Amino acid sequence: MNAIEIEHISKNYKTVSAVKDISLSVKEGEIFGLIGPDGAGKTTLFRIMTTLMLADAGKGRICGFDIVKDYAQIRQIIGYMPGRFSLYQDLSVQENIDFFATMFGTTLQDNYETIREIYSQIEPFRKRKAGKLSGGMKQKLALCCALVHKPSVLFLDEPTTGVDAVSRKDFWNMLYRIKASGVTVFVSTPYMDEAGLCDRMALIRQGNIIDTGTPAEIVAKYPYALLAVKGTPMYPLLKELRKLDGVISCFSFGDSHHLAYDPAKTQKENILAAAVAAGFKDCTAWEIKPGIEDCFMQLSEQ
Amino acid sequence: MWKYLLEKEFKQFFRNPGLPKMAIAFPVLMMLVFPFAVSMEIRNINLVVVDNNKSTVSAQLIEKCTSSGYFKLIDICQSPEKAQEYMDDNRADAIITIESDFDEETGKGTGLPLGIKVNTVNGTKGSIGAQYIASCIRMFLKEQDTGTAGNSTPTIDISEKYYYNPYMDYKVFMVPALIVIAITMVTGFFPALNIVGEKETGTIEQINVTPVKKTAFIICKLIPYWVIALFILTACLIIAWLVFGYTCHGNLLSLYLFSGLQIIVTAGLGLLISNYSNNAQQAMFIIWFFMMIFMLMSGIFTPIASMPEWAKVITYFNPMRYYADAMRAIFLKGSSPLDVWYDAAGLLAIGTAVVSWAIFSYKKTE
């Protein structure tokens, strides 16, 4: 049985359609990533799956329970951590955990093993008010509260947004440990570089799922050859490269341009020569393997 | 679980930097400061007299007026123009003009050569001031009558007796009304702000994904404010008794009964407001709007009987009207709940409507 199974879910807000005919399935015990930019419909999908909102159309099951009919059972077995810190800032760390444990009809002691590793990091501050914690600590506390009842599925809506690089790495390590304890993790992120960390993922754009699969599968589907190109000045170079014959697309990626081309029509040498001929200095180009972001850009183009 | 939800609410209440202090300050202010501030008793009416008669009789009249304690004699002047100037400068509230034949005409029972002018920029002060002057003059004339022996003009002696508030003490009239305002604010609007606050911080979402029933959550939110409301009611009654010596003429329990009915209405209203607002600012605006209408149309400050018909119709939809009426009747008159059954009926009707609407809209917003 799949942990999450949703079919043809749609949701409109007045005239805007936030989620269009989305179907997904998530296997038990995997980390599934929902990758997409802001406004793609990630949070809407989360709210539908966590029974906070009704979909306009479509069906869904979490661990076999229907997201509409069996919402009461679903609430017993899921943990949800919204994007925004939403615990009681005026209660202490300990009180927040105890409160949510009680709301789920359990206690911290009963499920201590589940959250021990994360809880041990915030335990020194257990008397402190949640509002007075640092960003990283707040996140750990929120994770503790979401895990305190030992859920079967953990929903994390953009947990790493606004978190520094080191803490993000820490956070993903925590997710692996959570996964190891048998919890299915459904996580969303706007950061493409985190996509490779998921077991499987779905790319979402403007309410549509544009691709699903393991990171390797998605990358393998990339149809073109890819170059990284550098030269000065950078921005006119980008516009010049886009005009070349055989170039499919060219986007700025940090300090270089990623250029997709059709190997049947042109070659690296031709492209480099054209750039030099157009008067750009220090031109270099090298073959690269596509990343998730390249795939996302290519899929968005279609 | 209920115990925990309640414990959390109380913890949050007592940790709030303002609320516990407000719960104490509210009844104290309501009872110790406001009864004086909202008093309709008029004192210190600035009086100017134009004395064209300048006889002992006119001097006695002026003496009579100033000794009553309600008037402050600004000036006795000769010309009406000078007196008018005082009034135009807002230094005089009332002018008494005594004509030159005043001493001769008194006691004859004919028309009295005396004029009263009142500044009615402040309507209450003006009309009450005019009444005071008239009653001063009436008393003065009566004394004059008995002074001139043998003259047996039949006079009608009007003596007023004020029932239920024999000294026309405005404060005792306001005490139950101020309790009404306090209870309505605390039980209706504080919980609304609290629920909207949870919406704003997103914690309500976090609660919604737990198996906790929404009704349990909401009721646990309301209970602390009910406790506080009953505390405020009790505190107000004790303060009124200790400081002013006012005691409730009716059954104390009926005060609590009507407060309970009012709480049902305000709880529904608070829930309704929180359903329709997404943040504290919106909620504040709606609360402010309702509170203004409730207070001004409740008969607390101005009698409903003197409102025009269409305004009276509006007051029938105002829960505060019924609550204030019942509280005053019980507190001042000692009415039993049966005597004011119509107030209970009004509160129940509004309560049922508001609570069902609140539940209906709450289900829809899910």
Q: Would you write up a description of this structure?
A:
The complex is a heterodimer of chains A (302) and B (366). Chain A has ten helices and 14 strands. Chain A is α/β, with parallel strands linked by helices. In chain A, a hairpin with a 2-residue loop joins strand 12 and strand 13. In chain A, helix 3 runs parallel beside helix 5 (135-147) and helix 4 (112-122) packs antiparallel against helix 5 (135-147). By secondary structure, chain B is of the alpha/beta class. The A-B interface holds A 50-52, 54, 72, 75-76, 78, 80, 82, 84-91, 95, 98-100, 102-105, 145 and B 1, 4-5, 8, 11-12, 15-16, 201-203, 205-212, 366.
Helix content estimate of chain B:
55-70%
| Rg from alpha-carbon coordinates of chain B | 28 Å
Measured by DSSP, the beta-strand proportion of chain A falls in: 25-35%
What is the averaged pLDDT score of chain A?
A: 89
- Secondary structure: helix percent of chain A: 25-40%
User: Helix segment count of chain B?
Assistant: 15
Distance between termini of chain A?
A: 33 Å
Determine Rg of chain A (CA atoms, Å): 23 Å
Strand order of the biggest β-sheet of chain B = 2-1-3-4
Secondary structure: number of strands of chain B: 4
State the secondary-structure class of chain B: alpha/beta
- Which series of helices and strands of chain A comes N to C? EEEHEEHEHHHEHEEEHEHEEHEH
CATH architecture of the largest domain in chain A: 3-Layer(aba) Sandwich
